[in-house]
Design brief:
Layout lengths: L37 H11 L4 H6 L8 H14 L21 E3 L2 H8 L5 H10 L3 E3 L2 E3 L10 H12 L19 H15 L3 E2 L5 E2 L2 H5 L12 E2 L10 E2 L4 H13 L5 E11 L8 E11 L5 H14 L6 E4 L6 E11 L2 E9 L1 H6 L7 E6 H7 L15 E10 L4 H12 L3 E10 L8 E10 L8 H16 L4 E2 L2
Helix pairs in contact: 4-6, 7-10, 13-14
């Protein structure tokens, strides 16, 4: 307001003054074409709560060089409409920057940036239509495009006219393409395979009590007793890092058993910590630990679980060899798992004393497998095999052998004797009784014989079986009569 007259005046860029408008007795009009600072206009309109058409335009930024063309056009319309007589005289106070913005034109960079293949002549056409002037590889930005400052803005204008829907979808450059490692995929397959067989996954603490080594009958001089000691343990029960995850598994099985769960089939991909020298971090060894009791489980149950796992992860040619060297396992119901001449694990019944030490009063079965050794034993990628063209020949063999002879040895001998004609072999019976001599047992196998070249005749099949029986006789295994 004017102090002496108390009359409202105009707010620059927001609202004109009440008494500066045209009245009934107006004879002379002075035209003004002005440009205002965008930030100032926005602040004024916001503080006064007066958002007008004028403020909405000025606060976005208008070109100061439009003032003169605008006022000349207004005067032209006055004369064209016969609304008055225009007299000469213009006062021009132009303090704006008149130097145009010049940007380099690089079609190759624009295409790389947008991920397109727009021809250069199309780009020039788009820019010309928008009012840009091109001189060789230079772009002169029109004064009314104050928003254009860099080559990125030029690329955006070209993309806008080219059509965003015509730009192909591409992956962002410079971003990490995450994918699982071979070991991670292997672990996922292990977990899905064991879950499919009815086991539940568990997670246990890596720090345990030294007393747990005594519970699994670990010898006092065993290298596995040399563990990483925690400098600030919560207590003796969590004072060392485990070198074997078997005690952790037995603790969980014990908890389930003593809470009257009739069965528990569990597994864990556990980390075991093998100490190195002083001031060195320990080796972190990954192992698969399987433990179960109940549901009529026996040695062959857990052996079958391990066999299914090895088949799924594509480890072939493995063998189960009887062993009595593992202190935590029953000496007569334990087997080493061999693959590519390496012991990749052990499977069997937990020693009754170990089960009793862990307050489990029924038979417990466990398997421990080394993940790194399993990875080394994985075969080549599986390939498609067409369905057989020729029929198979089925033969059953009932054999008598010494009671303490491993069935796996007999099965291995059969495979080696039959050679390429043996498609599959399945153990379906083990018998000890009155019809079998003392200290002997009967084992029965079902053999599937097939040739890829022709149908096997009875004579050819008998010849293969005869060779098998002949070879088995060398290890004192004979047909049951």
């Amino acid at each position: 307001t004017i102090a002496d007259e108390k009359k409202p005046i105009a707010l620059a860029g927001v609202m004109g003054g009440e008494y500066s408008g045209i009245m009934d007795d107006t004879q002379t009009i002075v035209f003004e074409s002005a440009n205002f600072n965008p930030a100032s206009v926005r602040t004024t309109a916001k503080e006064l709560g007066m958002r007008t058409d004028s403020s909405s335009r000025f606060e976005k930024g208008l070109s100061p060089q439009m003032c003169l063309p605008a006022i000349l056009r207004a005067c032209e319309l006055v004369e064209m409409l016969g609304a008055g007589e225009v007299v000469g005289g213009i006062i021009d106070c132009d303090y704006s920057v008149t130097k145009p913005v010049i940007i380099d034109f690089d079609p190759k960079w624009i295409n790389e940036f947008l991920g397109t293949e727009i021809p250069e002549h199309d780009m020039r056409d788009y820019l010309t239509r928008l009012g840009f002037e091109l001189d060789g590889n230079k772009i002169m930005v029109p004064h009314f495009r104050s928003d254009i400052e860099t080559k990125f803005d030029i690329a955006e204008e070209i993309a806008r006219l080219y059509g965003y829907d015509n730009i192909p979808t591409t992956a962002l450059r410079g971003t990490a393409q995450a994918h699982k490692t071979r070991e991670q995929k292997f672990k996922d397959l292990v977990i899905s395979t064991l879950l499919a067989q009815g086991l539940d996954e568990i997670k246990t603490y890596s720090f345990i009590s030294p007393k747990l080594y005594d519970k699994i009958r670990m010898p006092k001089d065993s290298p596995q007793r040399r563990s990483v000691t925690i400098s600030n343990p919560l207590g003796e029960d969590t004072s060392i890092m485990r070198t074997t995850a078997l005690p952790s598994m037995l603790q969980v099985l014990s908890t389930n058993y003593n809470n009257r769960n009739e069965s528990a089939w569990l597994f864990e991909i556990a980390t075991e910590y093998i100490p190195k020298g002083e001031n060195e971090l320990p080796e972190e060894k990954q192992s698969i630990i399987i433990g179960l009791y109940g549901d009529n489980a026996d040695f062959f149950t857990i052996k079958g679980i391990v066999e299914e796992l090895l088949d799924k992860v594509n480890i072939s040619g493995y063998e189960f060899t009887s062993s009595s060297d593992y202190y935590a396992f029953h000496p007569g119901r334990c087997a080493e798992i061999m693959a590519k001449c390496k012991t990749i694990g052990v499977v069997g019944e937990i020693h009754p004393i170990v089960a009793e030490n862990n307050d489990i009063l029924e038979k417990v079965y466990a398997a421990c497998l080394d993940i790194n050794l399993m990875l080394e034993s994985v075969g080549e990628a599986k390939q498609y095999t067409p369905l057989p063209k020729f029929p198979a020949v089925m033969r059953d063999l009932a054999l008598v052998c010494d009671e303490d002879m491993p069935v796996g040895l007999v099965q291995k001998m059969i495979k080696e004797s039959a050679g390429e004609y043996l498609e599959s072999i399945e153990l379906f019976d083990i018998y000890k009784g009155k019809q079998i001599a003392e200290n002997k047992k009967s084992v029965a196998f079902n053999l599937t014989l097939r040739s890829n070249k022709s149908t096997l005749t009875d004579e050819e099949s008998d010849k293969i079986v005869g060779k098998i029986i002949s070879e088995l006789a060398k290890i004192n295994v004979h047909l049951r009569t």
